[in-house]
Resolvase domain-containing protein
Amino acid sequence: MNQRIGYARVSTDDQHLDLQRDALQQAGCGVIYEEAASGKNVARLELEHCRKALRSGDTLVVWRLDRLGRSLPDLVQIVADLERSGISFESLTEKIETNSAAGKLVFHVFAALAEFERSLIRERTYAGLAAARARGRSGGRKPKLGDKQLREIKALLHDPDIQVSDVARRYGVSRTTLYKHVGVIKPKKKQPY
């Protein structure tokens, strides 16, 4: 027997699930999974329990699209996973249901928009990096040690009486940073007098 299973979520503990619960019950959901969790959280335990309970032919029902996905791409991914498992999806507020051709069309338009948004973000990022490189800037942090400091460090490390840890402390870096920039420097042997 195919079930209609509801999922309701509020972002914080001081919000109430009553509105969503009532709407899901009116929509014929016999079982409703509820949780108070920010949409930004990747781990939403009740959603995972809900997804495990769904079987082929069932329908996952939510009050509104933003109750299910953290973002449009996340929502598209969840619905695509459901569809691959033979599970329908329905959003009451937006009147989207994927068990009809029209509902699938609307949802695929959403998916196309999500992909378009990702492409725009990627293009803007690459354009910004290219513009920065054209102005002579490169990405990443500025080096901790300048050329003059590296020359001083190399000279200090040639002295057998100076420890690497003392030089690192003096320049405010770790020993690893020193080795990364100057390599291993063998101290010069003392000249007998």
Notes: The two ends are 98 Å apart (CA to CA). The chain has two domains: 4-112, 147-182.
